[in-house]
Design a protein that fits this description.
The complex is a heterotetramer, with two copies of chain A and two copies of chain B.
Chain A (H helix, E strand, L loop, with lengths): L10 E4 L4 H13 L3 E5 L7 E2 L2 E4 L2 H8 L3 E4 L6 H11 L3 E4 L6 H14 L4 E3 L5 E4 L3 E4 L8 E8 L3 H12 L4 E6 L10 H10 L5 E7 L4 H11 L5 E6 L23 H10 L3 E3 L4 H9 L2
Parallel strand pairs in A: 1-2, 1-5, 2-4, 5-6, 6-7, 10-11, 10-12, 12-13, 13-14
Antiparallel strand pairs in A: 3-4, 8-9, 8-11
Helix pairs in contact in A: 3-4, 7-8
Chain B lengths: L4 H10 L7 E4 L2 H10 L4 E5 L12 E4 L2 H11 L3 E2 L2 E2 L3 E5 L3 E12 L4 E7 L6 H7 L4 E5 L8 H10 L7 H17 L2 E12 L4 E3 L3 E4 L8 H6 L8 H8 L3 E4 L4 E5 L2 H13 L6 E4 L6 H12 L6 E8 L4 H15 L6 E6 L2 H10 L5 E3 L2 H10 L5
Classes of the chains: A alpha/beta, B alpha+beta.
């Protein structure tokens, strides 16, 4: 199995009747994801691509035993979806929604942590995660991934696809690929996922795709220096980004003097990672690892 | 979104924080009039979206209305760190006994509001933290517990604020937390927080950053803020088109889908010896309309003499993206050959469509090749 | 403190809850005018601090302005469950499709806000709970978790509200919680919560109880409420004097220190065959001034023909209490002999002071004896 | 020792420099209470009747090892005092303050319960508690109590003094007397204290002084019917109180049909208590118990 999810993982889609929700439900079903339920208030009793829809997620969990959920609702309804999922007993919540007010995220994380400490959240503003050939929870294009032995943790969407595509072409498959989300406040962070990859027998090397802003890469470097025991290749995007400017999404912003691509790369290098300077060097570095 | 000093102060005031009387003016005669109204002794302060105004001559003391007129005249129109001063804030002076520092900031690492207090205000807090760390205290606020006076008192005393000043400090900090939560702020800072000789705590300056994602909860406020008018005109246009655009200093115009991909494109250009003119993320979909707007914005920058479009086809397939690119380029007919790199789902069909289109495009298959071509293909200036 | 219907609705409206247009009038001509303004079809509703207005003829439908005039005339001045109608609320009519029930109440047992929702509104919720319990749902709200739309949806569906009505119900419930927390309410109830044929949720009535202890946070609101003007004049005076006073139906005036002690005094009087005229707790201290105000208020009730003062001396000693009582009685010289029972710290000195004072007082040592004497000593009516 | 406190219990007074705080500190010291610290913002370094005053309670706990605290500050500062005491590590908080907004109390209780589940709170609007001859935490008149074998739990102030006084005169001493507070929301309730009295070897009988309103007496009756194994005499004040009217303090109000003195007395009687109808019958009933 991949980390966190496998072929059997029973998935619910929150906001399944929406345009995005319904579209990606179809793509995920095609990929083989075991979507057992959807929810959408006022739409209970309908079906979306054969998936039963409930008014509340709690019914989806009760009747269909959903274990993981995908949040695909507009930003102002997303916090409610997180609370609902946590209370319904969902153990892995993948929040795709972009644009949630940060204090909403902050309160939701704190409340869920206090009351349901075992609930894991990926995102918000995450493309989801994929265990290639097994299951896909998110909006990633499944066809470009290939099963294999490299784990990927990334703060980016398209860049991850780009790198995974190149890896697949070069014959390097992926065990699990996780997009942690592009927001400044996210649930599972690099370090949380590194711990899972560290214990995952399928994963023989890890690739981290970082960005300017925050301290996730620095934390990863700290962890790498202590307990992590697999080869790690890292690329941190944004070496040319001017400080103080938001690059595309909310989380990608470096404050003066800290959270720059350079400082992050340096920290990772010092801790023993192969830190490369362009995305296309990731493949070379991983080929080196497996030589 | 960051507010100007007077905008932040007006928010503070709504929450019961004390601010000196002040008025915004855009001409020197009005500056004089307001100074007269306030009794002559005033501060004249440039209203610009940047710090360090003081050092750049953007903050002046006036002792008479005539002096206020002069300073207003001198400051208006000036450029401060790239920002033109269009408005000046005339503010009454208060009797300062001490200058403190108070702030709440959303801390990414802990995911919590961070309360910062210092017995030394009026200068950059990072500098105080470096030079006199014992005078700065930081407290992570658990929002479910809230922040309470006892915590502020404890931190204030630890930061060496005398206990006789606690009451106004505590009251101000509690109100500042209400601003932070109530306005969806990412930062709410009072620096300096002036303790007056009357024992009141008055906000000497304001620094507020609001969460754009929470716009819908504060529409009236956000619409009233002046900040949007002062961005770069191209950035403003991009925002309206729903594009994520940041102007840089080079000459190669860059368009891509996905923030990380565009950042990595910029990184590659720099590494191969080129210099990007901008960051532009068109997001998902890559429709012809969006692509057209994107190219138009990038080419409106007179420094641009090369265009690099870098699209990874995921759910949106490369063939769709290719059709969008061609339609956009046909409509705009740029004066130099665009370098287009397509990769991902249906890439081969995408390449074929681009090559068969009859439009002058350099099609590249790998990113590295594309970057090198984009650097080479620049129009002679 | 309980609000009148229109006061509660005006609070609701500030939080974005929908209310029908309405105006308060105190004469029938104005009633007609408002009805005209609202297009003729209105409700005419007595504004009094009691429930059950409908059954008592305090709520009427008018189909024309003339009818509104007539109903206003008929309702104004009427007595409803002991409350005189001084004001009438003229309200536009809405197209009702369903009547629901929504409320938040502070639940003593759990110490939490309790959310109550029912698919049957417009009647007493306790009656619905008895007769159709499946249509009423109660949810204890953990205030650190908050209440969120999913909880309201779940409870609404469980209470058999159709899912097509969820959106306006959820929105109203969330706003009602904001009222509850934001206004320091002990109860915030919408009954009926009218679902209109346009699919909106409109407050048909309001019932709000505010926490007097939180007065200082809502001074403007509390001062604007009409309720204080409508209490019993003696109760109003007592409140101003800082005394806790409740009028009862009997003839023995009772004064004591401590709510429990006074209640137990009333219990004892009833048990021994007497009938107390009031509850009056003078609180701690028992100063001569407070005692005098207390006696004055008790004797102002024309039914009172016996006076029983029951003081337990704790930290305030009995000798101090005795001096206060004597001073008060000397000043007021009541027409009948007060029965005074003193017990506790320094009781013997207290008794001596009372007995040596020359003032006509029946001094008792035990409570039981005092109660019996107070019943015997009543002035012949 | 009494329940909760004994002669050695180290007590801090929050609001010690206030009029009430200073006055009752003197009385408690005279009674023998081991008051080790007081706190009052801005007054640190002073002394009140020889007790050192600190700016923050945390200092009082750190320097003087205070274990219990008395809250004697005005209502609008009282919630802060509760939070401060809980965070400072105080295990028993006795809140004397009357007039705290109920939602403030509600939030304080919920937050403290979530973060410091072992912290016990008595009150608000409590006269405190006394272990006669040992220690006094509160504003009760110490001289009227007498050490002995009857525990008292009460919602009232003066009425409790009255009954304790009569008991003392009749030769029946008290083990511990606790005023739970006259507010609608209180910390420790009858049932919580009954559990402690049940285990207290010094207490041979219990006296409950109830009031109209709430469900504390009913809960006590439920507990009495199951686990409680000592004689219990109960008096519930307010048999003549009109429903819906507040009798003196915020908690004493019976809603229509529930929380009346009669229903409470009946419940207690059914569960095996001796429920009397006037306060002066309490002494007779307890004399009977010990006959």
């Amino acid at each position: 199995m991949g980390i966190l999810v496998d072929r059997e993982t029973k998935v619910a889609v929150q906001g399944i009747t929406g345009k995005e929700g319904s579209y990606h439900t179809r793509l995920m079903l095609q990929y083989g994801t075991n979507i057992v339920a959807g929810c959408s208030p006022g739409k209970g009793g309908q079906e979306v691509h054969g998936v039963p829809v409930y008014d509340t997620l709690e019914e989806g969990v009760r009747h269909e035993k959903a274990e993981a959920s995908l949040v695909m609702v507009p930003p102002r309804f997303a916090p409610d979806a997180l609370y609902e999922a946590a209370e319904a007993g969902i153990k892995l919540i993948v929040c795709i929604t972009e644009g949630i007010p940060l204090l909403d995220t902050m309160f939701a994380f704190q409340r869920i942590k206090a009351r349901y400490p075992d609930t894991k959240i990926i995102g918000p503003n995450s493309p989801g995660l994929i265990a290639p050939g097994k299951t896909l929870l998110g909006i990633m294009p499944g066809n470009i991934f290939k099963g294999g032995k490299v784990g990927i943790i990334s703060r980016s969407g398209t860049l991850t696809y780009q790198i995974a595509y190149e890896l697949s072409h070069a014959g390097i498959g992926q065990s699990t690929v996780v997009g942690v989300g592009g927001d400044p406040l996210i649930g599972m962070r690099f370090i949380d996922l590194m711990k899972l990859f560290n214990q995952d027998p399928e994963t023989q090397a890890l690739c981290i795709i970082g960005e300017i802003g925050g301290r996730d890469e620095e934390e990863a470097a700290d962890y790498l220096g202590t307990d992590f025991n697999k080869p790690l290749v890292a690329y941190v995007a944004g070496q040319t980004a001017p400080p103080g400017r938001k690059m595309g999404h909310a989380g990608a912003i470096a404050s003066a003097g800290e959270g720059t691509a350079e400082s992050k790369s340096t920290a990772l290098k010092k801790a023993g990672a192969v830190a490369v300077e362009t995305s296309y060097q990731v493949v070379e570095a991983l080929l080196d690892v497996f030589k | 979104m960051k507010t100007l000093e007077h905008e932040g102060k007006s928010i503070f005031s709504r929450y019961g924080l004390l601010i000196p009387r002040g008025k915004v003016v855009d001409n020197s005669l009005e500056g004089k009039k307001v100074a007269e109204e306030f009794g002559g002794e005033v501060m004249v302060k440039a209203q610009v979206h940047t710090g360090g105004r003081g050092k750049e001559g953007g903050i002046k003391k006036a002792s008479t209305p005539q002096e206020a007129l002069q300073w207003t005249k001198e400051i208006l129109g000036r450029k401060i760190r790239g920002y033109t001063v269009n408005k000046v804030y005339i503010e009454e002076r208060v009797n300062i006994e001490e200058e403190y520092y108070l702030a709440f900031i959303l801390d990414r690492s802990s995911g919590l509001p961070l309360f910062i207090i210092s017995s030394k205000g009026g200068i950059d807090i990072e500098k105080v933290a470096r030079e006199e760390p014992e005078r700065v205290r930081r407290l992570k606020v658990n929002p479910l517990w809230g922040i309470h006076p006892y915590q502020v008192r404890r931190e204030a005393l630890e930061a060496r604020i005398p206990s006789s000043h606690l009451t106004p400090i505590v009251s101000a900090a509690m109100k500042l937390y209400e601003v932070f939560i109530g306005e969806d702020a990412l930062l709410a800072e009072i620096n300096p927080a002036l303790l007056t000789s009357e024992g009141r705590l008055v906000c000497g300056d304001s620094k507020v950053e609001l969460d754009d994602n929470a716009f819908y909860r504060h529409q009236e406020l956000h619409n009233s803020l002046e900040s949007y008018q002062e961005e770069d005109p191209l950035e403003r246009r991009a925002r309206k088109e729903g594009l994520s655009f940041v102007k840089l200093k080079g000459n190669i115009g860059v368009i891509g889908n996905g923030a990380g991909l565009v950042m990595s494109t910029l990184d590659s250009i720099s590494r191969e010896g080129g210099s990007p003119a901008n960051f532009l993320d068109i997001g998902g979909g890559a429709s012809a309309d969006k692509m057209e707007a994107a190219i138009d914005i990038v080419l409106a920058n007179p420094r641009v003499n090369s265009l690099f479009i870098n699209i990874f086809g995921g759910i949106t397939r490369c063939d769709e993206a290719a059709r969008g690119i061609i339609a956009a380029i046909k409509n705009l007919s740029p004066q130099f050959m665009p370098v287009v790199r397509l990769g991902g789902t249906n890439e081969e069909e995408g390449w074929r469509i681009l090559e068969d289109s009859g439009v002058e495009i350099k099609v590249c298959k790998s990113m590295k090749e594309a970057v090198i071509k984009a650097i080479e293909y620049k129009k002679e200036a």
